[in-house]
Write a structure and sequence with these properties.
This protein is an alpha/beta fold and about 500 residues long. It is built from 22 helices and 11 strands. α2 links the parallel β2 and β3. α15 packs parallel to α20. Belongs to the sulfotransferase 2 family.
């Protein structure tokens, strides 16, 4: 691993090095209360598709034990209706039990395809790499169904799975630690429930309320145990913990092919003491993130952002790193892999305002006219000449850097909410109080990104930081569509929507 700008002549980083502060604060204790740590959101039926044939039928079609368990789960005190308030997310596979039982291969394939298309596009799934999700299924499952879930959603590696059977039921389960075995044993009271969809205002059926009056229902205890177990396992960096696997699905060959190695090595940074691999790409707050990385790894020069020094001390893989060296980090479930990404609409505008307007780097877009290029002309150049866009990393798709097409990142932070996103991450890693809570801002008395952080190449905030107002001032609908076409993969991979910007620009034109 290399310090400073990637240089194939430099040797491998000495793994025996101990820098100041390493490991001193690591903790599995999250910030906030236990209630917030175990609050959960249950996805609606539409996550499986819009056809009613895919929806759960909760009356005679299902097992009474399952019905009782579902009733308790869906009326649980820790369930929240707003996904923004949840720390855990339940994927209710029990609602498609009848589809699985029917054995219609095309229907089952459609359900899984819908799930694959819908889940990974949600911000709550993207931000934690699926690790905050638990798939709940309440009966035996065929190996064929499980294989599809493993192949398409990697449920045995990145997410939690709750089911009555022990993990040994399935072959090749890669992360047994993320399996929760639940009990569907029932007291007599729960067996009398005929229609759990008939509910009182409290959300529970009248018969279930009577069954739970003495708090003797094993279902209630079973649901509580599952929720508590999930909350415990998802504390701190434990939310990504995986025991029992020797490999992940990283496509190392894709990282090494073509320009993939260079785009991976140049923008990923290693903190061996805290076992983090971080991806900081151009025009994604990379300058301030390098400052954080240097501070986190114990460098006294972390506030030095001059052009020739802001890379100094940062640790990379060498350009000629062997496959085994790469996999020792990217395929190691003990390492937390983090990326900072940005809305492509804002990132494109930021690239124009800094590189073209502020710094007059016209050579970046091969501009030869004897006047400044307008933003519309800048977008047209990138759109009409993909080689120009792909030849400069400030304008390149984020998906093409840091091995995003080959590596499963555990945590995605977004520039638009970077203060809160990175605070949450560092709190999970036990590093916030040492590196994020103080020492930042022009006067050194602010928390990380609590206020604008001036640097050598960003002494003042760019206009693009104004967000909605700046987009409305610079974009037309046609320009938006070109940016969406150029960066569609980034929109989809990182959970951004073009619709918000379309509405904004349409309102401007009214």
């Amino acid at each position: 691993m290399n310090r400073g700008p990637p240089d194939p002549s430099q040797g491998v980083f000495d793994k025996g090095n101990n820098l100041p502060g390493f490991g001193s604060e690591q903790s599995n204790t999250p910030s906030g209360s236990d209630d917030s740590a175990s609050s959960f959101y249950i996805y609606p039926n539409t996550v499986f598709g819009n056809s009613e044939k895919y929806f759960w039928k909760p009356v005679a079609e299902i097992n009474a034990k399952s019905a009782c368990f579902v009733d308790v789960l869906e009326s649980h005190r820790n369930r929240v209706r707003d996904p923004q308030e949840a720390s855990l997310f339940v994927v209710p596979l029990y609602r498609i039990e009848h589809i699985v039982d029917a054995g219609n291969a095309s229907h089952l394939a459609a359900v899984i395809a819908n799930l694959r298309d819908n889940l990974p596009n949600t911000r709550q799934y993207i931000d934690f790499g699926g690790a905050s999700h638990v798939f709940v299924y309440l009966k035996s499952v065929s190996k064929g169904f499980m294989k599809q879930m493993m192949d398409q959603l990697y449920v045995d590696l990145y997410s939690f799975w709750a089911a009555p059977e022990p993990v040994e039921y399935w072959d090749n389960w890669r992360c047994p630690h993320r399996h929760l075995q639940i009990s569907l044993e029932t007291e007599t009271g729960c067996k009398t429930i005929k229609d759990p969809s008939t509910r009182e205002p409290s959300g529970q059926s009248a018969e279930l309320q009577r069954a739970l009056a003495g708090e003797s229902s094993r279902h209630h205890q079973g649901v509580d145990a599952m929720v508590d177990d999930l909350a415990q396992r998802s504390r701190g960096r434990g939310i990504w913990e995986c025991r029992g696997t020797s490999s992940t699905l990283t496509d190392t060959a894709a990282i090494l092919a073509g320009t993939g190695r260079g785009k991976f090595v140049s923008y990923t940074f290693i903190d061996e003491g805290h076992q983090t691999l971080t991806c900081f790409m151009p025009k994604c707050a990379s300058t301030v993130m390098k400052m954080m990385q240097k501070r986190q790894t114990g460098l006294d020069t972390w506030k030095d952002t001059a052009k020739g020094t802001r890379w100094q001390g940062l640790v990379h893989f060498p350009h000629d790193a062997a496959v085994g060296e790469l996999r020792a980090v990217v395929d190691n479930p003990g390492w937390v892999k983090v990326a900072v990404v940005r809305d492509p609409v804002i990132r494109c505008l930021s690239g124009y305002l800094q590189k073209i307007v502020q710094l007059k780097n016209y050579g970046f877009i091969r501009w030869k006219a004897k006047r400044d290029a307008t933003f519309e002309e800048f977008v047209d150049v990138l759109y009409s000449y993909p080689s120009i866009r792909r030849g400069n990393d400030h304008f390149l798709e984020q998906s093409a850097m840091c091995g995003h097409r080959a590596i499963h990142y555990n945590y995605i932070a977004h520039v638009e909410t970077l203060h809160q996103d990175y605070k949450s991450l560092l709190q999970r890693l036990g590093l916030w109080e040492s590196f994020g809570a103080w020492g930042w801002g022009a006067d050194g008395h602010q928390a990380f990104l609590e206020a604008f952080e001036p640097s050598y190449n960003h002494p003042n905030q760019l206009e693009s930081s104004a967000g909605d107002a700046s987009v409305a001032a610079h974009y037309t609908m046609g320009m938006l569509e070109k940016v969406y076409e150029m960066y569609r993969e980034d929109f989809e991979r990182f959970g951004y929507s073009i619709d918000k910007w379309r509405r904004l620009v349409a309102q401007k034109n009214l």
